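Anyone able to model this chain together with fe (ii) ion?
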Amino acid sequence: MKLRWSHAVLLVRDMEEMIGFYTKVLGFEVTDRGPFPAPDANGAEIVFMSQVDTDHHQIAFVDKKRDGNPPNSVDHFAFRVDSLDDVKLMDKQLAEDGRVENRLPLTHGNAWSIYFKDPEGNGIEVFCDTPWHVQQPQGTIWDRDKSNAEIADETRRGFESEARFGPIEDFYAKRASELKDR
Ligand SMILES: [Fe+2]
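re: yes, here you go
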């Protein structure tokens, strides 16, 4: 199994200032934005940005840093693996290692992910793409004990009525064509 760098999600104080800098100066484009899908979101928004055709987001911001809290700026770092089997294998390795207390299996419709914290509390996501793209943000639990076919079926049924649901190849092809002339 290979973990390939995909994206970082940062906690920010001033969303519009950060978006302005990352879009106008660094050349990113906002690819999606919406309410942060977490129980402790407290009204926070997540904004996704990318400037490549290989990742829906290379960086995302959550405006959850209020009055200097939390003191860290990292929500999570994310690594892509090649398959759902690899995500399940990573989950098993983490369970066997025993140091990680909570392993959260979330699907965003376009990804099957395991979220956990490293020994110093940094958030980590290991995920693979699903066969689909769907408007973000999204987040529901997927069942690690089910077969890959059952998981895929549940994910498709859970997201197919959501906006911009479609084959992930179409999403990547559209992004590639949009970015070609830049
Ligand atoms: Fe992520």
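The chain has one domain: 4-180.
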